Amino acid sequence: MRLKHTFIHSLLLSAVLMTYPVILPADTSSAAPDTVQSDGRKMPCEPQVLSEIDESAQKPSAFTPPHTVSMPFQQPSHLPDIRDSRDQEAITILTQQNEAEAKEAQEATPVESKNLNEEAEEEIQQIPDPLAPVNKVMFYVNDKLYFWALKPATQIYSHIVPEDFRIVFSNAYDNLWAPARIVNNLLQLRFKSAGNELIRFLFNSFAGVGGLADAARDALGIKKQEADFGQTLGHYGVGHGFYLVLPVFGPSSLRDGVGLAGDWFMYPLTYVGTSHLTFGQSAGISAHEKVNNLSFRLGDYESLKESAIDPYVSMRDVYDQYRKKKVEESKQ
Residue 224 burial by CB count (10 A; 0-12/13-18/19+): exposed, middle or buried? Predict the structure, then answer.
């Protein structure tokens, strides 16, 4: 009986030993290093491996859960990234610069547009002409008077009287207007011009035989210093008032009409005519002066009228520009 039990134990042991090699190489690569889970029992490993496993188990683990790891390369979530902050700062600076440039442009544009508008207004601004219907009628009358009477008379006069004689007459009339130029230069505070005009008047009156020759220009090099009372009024800021077309005299204004009357008070023939000359003689002298001066400018009016779309408006604009230029010259 004891042999029988021993034999049975031997068979069981042999069965166990036969099954051991099969269980041992079970998939240990995916299991933990110290144990292989099979049927709930822990299988022993080699002593060296086991000691290494024990040492590693005793050492603190280098692995730390993610929420406890200190990562210096990663910015906290509540702080902006340095590159992003620089980019944001650059964008802010550029935005501020753009806003400043836009603001300057907006501020400069109205100034520039205002300056352009003012220049345009100055160019467009014309002498007031509230009496345009009356002035146009007078312009038409003077136009017919010129072509029907004044121009033919001047052509005949130019044909009969040589140019040298006409220059002599022109010098004499010009010398008679010298007192008006002297006074107006003084009123405009142009003392040098007033002094030169006085020397010219005295020299021409004596050396030029009553002004028949412009001796001061030829001998002394002193030219005529233009000045009139209308220019003097403009020098002190008096505006045109409004446009006027005077009979025979042509384009004028309220200011220059008053100035023309003032100049006549400084014209010597005004006093000679009232005391020694009849009205017809005074009118004849004035007509001769007009024709004689026109003989040197014959054809100018025709050229202006032919080139103008509206001769009345063109004449008014030319007169306005001419008088503005004279006023500006008085301030130099």
Answer: middle
Domain contains 129? no
Which tokens is 43 given? Answer: 């299988």
Tell me whether residue 121 is in a domain.
no
Which pLDDT tens digit goes with each residue over 38-52? 444 444 444 444 444
Which amino acid, one-letter code, is at 171?
Answer: N
Interval 281-308 mean pLDDT: 92
Give residue 278's pLDDT. 85
Residue 104, SS3?
A: helix
The pLDDT of residue 38: 41
Residue appearing with tokens 């021993």: 6
Domains of the chain: total? 1
**Is residue 287 domain-resident?**
no
pLDDT at 174: 95
Q: How far apart are CA 187 and CA 183, in angstroms?
A: 6
Q: Is 311 part of a structural domain of the chain? A: no
Token pair recorded at residue 58: 């005793």
Q: Which residues pair with 243 in a beta bridge?
A: 253
pTM score: 0.62
Domain that holds residue 194: 178-227
Axis crossing angle, helix 191-206 with helix 178-187, rounded to the nearest 10: 160
pLDDT digits (tens, 9 = 90+) for 98-110: 566 656 655 554 4
Residue 97 tokens read as 């610069």
Buried b (16+ CB within 10 A) or exposed e, 19-44: eeeeeeeeeeeeeeebebeeeeeebe
Inter-CA distances, 117 with 103, 104, 114, 282, 324, Å: 21, 19, 5, 50, 20
Would you state the pLDDT for residue 66?
44
